[in-house]
Amino acid sequence: xxVSFKSSEVQQNFGLILERxxxxxxxxxxxxxxxxxxxxxxxxxxxxxxxxxxxxxAQLRRAAAETAARAAVLSEAEVETLIEEAREAVARxxxxxxxxxxx
Length: 103
Hints:
This protein is an alpha+beta fold.
């Protein structure tokens, strides 16, 4: 379950908000009607981090597989270029996700 509160409500009732988060309710904190922060229990936060790591690892594996398939007929220099491109693509995706998370 998810509930939303204004930032002023969270400031005034932090203990109650914290209790809700600890019991499994995701709390969204809004500022001027725009969601800005989510408060979740620490185990849930750890799950989210693990899921994010798994997603990035899957992206790297996919990029590596694509590169390996193409590498079968490429020179060593072309292989190195493709590996660097894959790393950059994953880094860009991670940066875009981090930017989206900050909004």
